[in-house]
Every structure is written in structure tokens, then in C-alpha cells.
Amino acid sequence: MQYAEITGWGKYTPPTVLSNEEMTTFVDTSDEWISTRTGIKERRISHINTAEMSAIACEHALASAGLSADDIDLIIVATCTPDLLVPNTASKVQELLGTNNSACFDINAACSGFLYGLQNASAQIHVGMAKKVLLVGAERMSWFVNWQDRQTAVLFGDGAGAVVLEATDEKVGLLESKSSCDSNSREILKVLGMGTDIDIYKEPLGPLTIQFMGPDIFKRAVKGMGMATNTVMEKANLKVEDINLLIPHQANLRIIETLQNKLKLTDDQCMVNIQKYGNTSAATVPLALCEAVEQGKIKPYDNIISAAFGAGLTCNASYIKWGKRVTPVNEFAGKEQACDKTAKELLAHAIADLKK
Ligand code: UT7
């Protein structure tokens, strides 16, 4: 069997920052409430779409792996905020990368999407169907947000993270993984306004709105991520002391701390960046993974546990064994797209009615 090593990593975080303080000028909330209840201090608002963010993250990941886009035989984009329903976002990413050599598809498992994607990409490499895969988690969540709903408006942000997976004989990469879905509770987290659920002969599409039973999801996320992590550790014969780093989905600092305490990990062993980006859904895990390598938190052959929970209600926990290399082969030399607008300017259309 071939294993699927993570040989490249890259991210795109939009340049425009929306701080809690700035948000209080148009949402009925406070920095104190957001910080203490969620751990979020600020989030990014993107001026470009999901495919464009993905492509920049991919350019970084390809440079980091020392590969070109032509070397890749499969591109998977995990997202619930696609540019279009058809064609898929992955095909746009391929076009932006200037290649034509890969298969392309999207995965929608909401916040668990990147880890669902990692399981699928690794499986294709394990059985020899693919050799080199680009896997992206990317979201433009600001596009869904109803700025009149303070419970959800404060939570989400935009961004993208990508990894390159390559076939290897060495026993590294995703070594154990557990995905699940509790469809009985799928109603407690959804985005309304789009899709064939709507009888377009009676009602128009949109506006898009996140509907969300926060406290219920909170409890289920704590339980679901904890149980999936136990299962994966048992299957992999891993003890708590074997874990070097936890990379949890970044939905709420209190959820992260509960999992961290359960695994008896120190702050240094738990990757947290929710304060900077908020909940970027499928992008949180690859963004946190990229920053963990950049910050030297990942050492050669480290044992990493990652867990995520999201709409569906989907859940995944994964055991990743890092490979030998923890520094990029090359740095992406291209230019990133600058933006001279403030967050409020970017959101002007969406928040225009709020003060009326
Ligand atoms: O990524 C997918 C998975 N997502 C998650 O796992 C998210 C899970 N849920 C959560 O993180 C939390 O439930 C929230 C952060 C969404 C909410 O936190 P909470 O501690 O569960 O607050 P709550 O909904 O129970 O609301 C408590 C109070 C309420 O006021 P009263 O009724 O006690 O007077 C809310 O109206 O906080 C109020 N509130 C706010 N106040 C200021 C709710 N949102 C806000 C806000 N600013 N943004």
C-alpha cells in the first residue's frame, strides 16, 4: 500500500480585517461578549471568491512541495460556499492554476469538509488511483451572514488552506480516520435561500441565511469530536502521551479547550487561531495546520490529532503522522491580491439596511 504524505501546505487569509470593535458599529454586540463566549477577536472579510482564495492557497502549497500544478492528478475543494453550484469550484481552481491535468471535484461536509476530503484523497492514494493530490478547504462565509442575527454574525470569517498529498512507501500521512453524520439533527444548522428545496414557482431564491441552534450544536460538537477522537486513538493504538499536537476545528474556544483538557494537552500542544480568523468552516483545519508548521509547532514524524464538527451534522477525527520535512521546498513568488477597502466598505451592500 502507498501512504499519502503531506508534502506541501499553504494558506490565503484575506487582507481585510473586521475586528469585534468595528463590528459593534453595525451589529448589536460587544467585544467582551464575543471574546468571552467564543474566543474570537477578529475575522477576515474576502474581496475575492472561494476559487480565487483556493488558488492562492494552492500556489503556496505547490511551492512548498516543490511541485507545479501540472504534476497534480486530483484537485478536491472542500467548501459549502462555492462560487457557483455548477460547475464545481475545483474546476475553477484548476483553471486559475493554469493546468488541465487533474480530476476535480468539490466536497460539502461543512466544517468537517477538509477532514472528509483528507480521508477521500488519502484513500485514492492508498489504492493507487492518485499519486499527487491538492486538497483545499476554502470558505467565503461572510457571504452567508445575516448581519441582523447577532448570534451567528459574530462567528464566521473567510479564508483558505491547502495541502499537497503525495504517494510514499513511508508509513506517514493519514493513518486513521473516523467520519460520521448524525442526520437526525441536520435541521439544527442550515443555510436557507438556495437549492431545490425551494419551490421556485411559489417563492424566490434567497436571501441566504444561516439558521443555527447555537447551544445545542455546542453540546453536540463537544460530544461528537470527543467520541470520534477516542475512536481514532483506540483504532490507532495511540495513548494520550503519544499525541504531539491537536488541530481542532475552530468554532468556539470553549469547545477547543474542552477537547484539549480531555486529552490532557498543554496550550503549546493545541493549535488555536480562532482569535484571528473566527470560524472559517472547512478552512479552519488547513489554516491551523499551515500556521502550526509555520510556527514550528510540528516536528518531523509528530503524531497529530485533528477533529471537526459541522452541518449535517458531520463529524470527523483524524490521526495524521507528519513526514520528515517541516520546511517548505520553495516559497510562492507570485503576488497576492491586495485590497484597499475596509471591511465595512466590502460589506456595505449587505449591511445597508441595518440602520434603517
Ligand atoms: O462550526 C460548526 C459548529 N459550530 C459550533 O460548534 C458553534 C457552537 N455554538 C456556540 O459556539 C455558541 O452556542 C454560541 C457562540 C453560538 C452562542 O454562545 P452561548 O454561550 O451558547 O450563548 P446563547 O446562545 O446561550 O446566548 C446567551 C445570551 C443570550 O441572552 P439572554 O437570553 O441570556 O439575555 C443571547 O441573546 O447571549 C446573547 N447573545 C449575544 N449577546 C451579545 C447571543 N449572541 C450575542 C452576541 N452579542 N453576538
Give an overview of the whole structure.
It is a single chain. With about 350 residues, this protein is of the alpha/beta class. It is about 30% helix and about 25% strand. It has twelve helices and 13 strands. The chain has helices at about 20-25, 30-40, 50-65, 90-95, 115-125, 150-155, 215-235, 255-260, 275, 285-295, 345, 350; strands at about 5-10, 15-20, 40-45, 75-80, 105, 130-140, 160-170, 175-180, 190, 210, 245-250, 305-310, 315-320. The strands form four sheets. It has a five-stranded mixed β-sheet, sandwiched between helices. Helix 4 (about 90-95) links the parallel strand 4 and strand 5. The protein is globular, with a radius of gyration of 19 Å. The N and C termini lie far apart (about 60 Å). The structure holds oxa(dethia)-CoA. Oxa(dethia)-CoA (UT7) binds next to helix 2, helix 6, helix 7 and strand 12.
